[in-house]
């Protein structure tokens, strides 16, 4: 640990201790740049939330020296098992994820699964090695940019005599890693264009007996009720994603344990062998697809969900934030140590935004290609394709349900998912080159118009 990181008071305030804030803190601390990281909740995170970890995030974890802790705890992403209703026991289909072989240049090629609560604990433990601890119960109220510094108002909720106290502080840089409802983003006046999807769901963790832990169990679809139950790295603890018009109102059912368990029982086929136990956490969840038009204004930045939110399929929410923060971390470290000019920080926004603009073009062609391959009779097809300028060639058809694997010339493979609902309407979940979920769309036109609404027309799609 350096003397620098302990003795100098932080010029950088990170707001929010989710994966995006924590990764940024770790990247800066490892570069001898002290930070203050505040978190408004008074307790550590509870719940798995987005637990899929992409290979690119594993590469980031390796660079930060935490990959072994993550891999030790993480599990492989299980196969998906779809059950027929009514009854709920007859297997309609099993979908196995294609597994790619690692190579020396590409050691991480497969998704792993680890709950965000576990991941947070791993990163926090590493942060503490640098003499920094997340300050729980400390909330950013407001942020204001001056010429060469940023003024913040902070409310300290921590218990201990006299109730909450307010602090007025000054920092050189403030980073909003404060989730989709980001105070930082709103006060900066950054746009957050996009849309909420139609689905209203519940997401949370629950103890279950009688369900095997080697697969993700799925019953029904969102036109009526859909329940997906995913095992976790903790035996007996499962994550539930459930919804549909007949499931119940997410807002009310989340706070009514009996109603929730009854809805789960019915939507999984009234099976007597499945016992729903302690509800660890359960929240309403409405997937949104939104993005800022800028990641920075002066000395204030946003990262993670504060800058973009995605729908859950593809498991990109958390991973995207990790990539943002890793991108920003080394640049901010160099500028803070006066080893690089402040203009280096312009490249953060410059690099993150074009990824999406490029994705528009790439994923549109990918979408058209995928639609061409669409099998009308299948109700779920998973396709693994190359995404990137260098299109590769198909190497394998992994299973009869349409899982395909492609590799590029560097042996990289990225994902795209094509799924149809029972009404015959398909949707495509496209993954952009940095393995971030780009969009969920119903047609090539939908994809184009969605991104045009954010970035304007690009030359290629005019
Ligand atoms: C219920 C739920 C289920 C989800 N399920 C999935 C899923 O299945 N798959 C998937 O990919 N993604 C999922 N996500 C999204 C995924 O969890 C996020 O993409 C990921 O957590 C983003 O990380 P982050 O660090 O940017 O933000 P967060 O993890 O949201 O962390 C932000 C932190 O900032 C804190 N904060 C907010 N405002 C302030 C303030 N003013 N002052 C101080 N602290 C503040 C918050 O308390 C929070 O701890 C889910 C999200 C939710 C809410």
What does this structure look like?
By secondary structure, the protein is an alpha+beta fold. The protein has 3 domains: 3-74 and 114-195 and 292-340, FAD/NAD(P)-binding domain (3-Layer(bba) Sandwich), CATH 3.50.50.60; 77-99 and 198-285, D-Amino Acid Oxidase, subunit A, domain 2 (D-Amino Acid Oxidase, Chain A, domain 2), CATH 3.30.9; 356-461, no CATH class. It is built from 11 helices and 28 strands. The protein has helices at 3-7, 19-30, 55-63, 67-73, 116-128, 183-188, 250-253, 257-267, 317-336, 346-372, 444-455, and strands spanning 12-15, 35-39, 52-53, 75-76, 79-83, 91-95, 112-113, 135-136, 138-145, 150-156, 165-171, 173-176, 192-196, 201-209, 215-220, 226-231, 237-243, 275-285, 288-292, 296-297, 300-302, 308-309, 380-385, 393-399, 403-407, 414-420, 426-431, 437-441. A hairpin with a 5-residue loop joins strand 26 (414-420) and strand 27 (426-431). The radius of gyration is 22 Å and the shape is globular. The chain starts with a helix and ends in a 7-residue tail after the last helix. The relative contact order is 0.15. It binds flavin-adenine dinucleotide (FAD). Residues 15-21, 38-41, 49-50, 116, 139-140, 177-179, 183, 203, 283, 285, 304-305, 312, 315-318, 321 line the site of flavin-adenine dinucleotide.
């Amino acid at each position: 640990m350096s003397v620098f990181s302990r003795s100098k008071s932080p010029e950088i305030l990170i707001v929010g201790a989710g994966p995006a804030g924590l990764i940024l803190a770790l990247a800066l601390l490892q570069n001898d740049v002290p930070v203050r990281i505040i978190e408004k909740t008074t307790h550590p995170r509870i719940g798995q939330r987005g637990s899929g970890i992409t290979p690119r995030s594993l590469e980031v974890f390796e660079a930060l020296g935490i990959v072994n802790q993550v891999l030790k705890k993480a599990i492989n992403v299980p196969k998906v098992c779809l059950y027929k209703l009514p009854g709920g026991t007859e297997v309609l289909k099993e979908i196995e994820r294609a597994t790619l072989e690692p190579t020396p240049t590409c050691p991480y090629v497969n998704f792993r699964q680890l709950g965000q609560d576990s991941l947070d604990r791993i990163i926090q433990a590493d942060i503490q090695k640098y003499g920094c601890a997340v300050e729980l119960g400390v909330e950013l109220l407001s942020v204001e940019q001056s010429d060469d510094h940023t003024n913040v108002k902070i409310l300290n909720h921590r218990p201990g005599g006299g109730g909450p106290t307010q602090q007025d502080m000054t920092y050189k840089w403030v980073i909003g890693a404060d989730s989709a409802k980001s105070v930082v983003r709103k006060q900066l006046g950054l746009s957050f264009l996009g849309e909420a999807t139609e689905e209203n769901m519940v997401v949370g963790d629950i103890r279950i007996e009688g369900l095997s832990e080697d697969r993700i169990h799925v019953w029904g679809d969102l036109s009526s009720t859909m329940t997906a139950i995913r095992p976790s790295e903790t035996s007996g603890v499962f994550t539930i994603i459930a919804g549909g018009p007949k499931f119940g109102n997410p807002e009310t059912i989340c706070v009514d344990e009996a109603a929730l368990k009854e809805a789960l029982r019915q939507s999984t086929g009234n099976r007597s062998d499945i016992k729903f136990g302690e509800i660890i956490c359960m929240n309403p969840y409405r997937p949104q697809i939104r993005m800022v038009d800028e990641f920075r204004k002066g000395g204030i930045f946003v990262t993670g969900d504060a800058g973009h939110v995605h729908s859950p399929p593809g498991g990109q929410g958390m991973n995207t934030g990790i990539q943002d923060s890793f991108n920003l971390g080394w640049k901010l470290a160099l500028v803070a140590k006066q080893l690089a000019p402040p203009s280096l920080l312009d490249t953060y926004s410059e690099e993150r935004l074009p990824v999406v603009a490029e994705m528009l073009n790439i994923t549109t062609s990918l979408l058209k290609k995928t639609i061409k391959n669409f099998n009308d009779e299948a109700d779920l097809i998973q396709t693994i394709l190359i995404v990137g300028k260098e299109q590769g060639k198909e190497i394998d058809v992994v299973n009869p349900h349409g899982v395909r694997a492609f590799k590029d010339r560097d042996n990289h493979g990225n994902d795209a998912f094509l799924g149809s609902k029972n009404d015959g309407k398909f949707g495509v979940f496209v993954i952009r080159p940095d393995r971030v979920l780009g969009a969920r769309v119903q047609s090539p036109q939908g994809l184009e118009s969605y991104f045009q609404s954010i970035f304007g027309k690009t030359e290629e799609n005019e």
